[in-house]
Design brief:
The protein is mostly beta strands. It contains no helices and eleven strands.
Length: 124
């Protein structure tokens, strides 16, 4: 079992930056593919980015490509989401998730564990 705790959300002006962190419990963190998702009010949860267990491969949604970067530190059991050039449409609750399959995937179906989420609000 993996427990995930997100942090780093907050209020930021458009064009600003935030770095989200997700701390994982358990000794098997390095075996999981990790992902970030977000959910805005009244909308479905959507994929943001994913990273392979080793950190060697990443996948980013087209809507954040070039602005957001996912990374991980397996020694610290932590995955990060660096968010630059934020836009009001990035406002959402951001969730990290852990997936046992080793293939990078944007589908929520394949993620087994979820954090509670952290709010990101971007003002115009």
């Amino acid at each position: 079992q993996v427990q995930l705790v997100e942090s780093g959300g907050g209020l930021v002006q458009a064009g600003g930056s935030l770095r989200l962190s997700c701390a994982a419990s358990g000794r098997t963190f390095s075996s999981y593919t990790m992902g970030w998702f977000r959910q805005a009010p009244g909308k479905e949860r959507e994929f943001v980015a994913a990273i392979s267990s080793s950190g060697g491969n990443t996948l980013h949604a087209d809507s954040v490509k070039g602005r957001f970067t996912i990374s991980r530190d397996n020694a610290q059991n932590t995955v990060y989401l660096q968010m630059n050039t934020l836009k009001p449409e990035d406002t959402a609750v951001y969730y990290c998730a852990a997936s046992r399959p080793t293939v990078l995937t944007a589908s929520t179906f394949y993620y087994d564990y979820w954090g509670q989420g952290t709010q990101v609000t971007v003002s115009s």
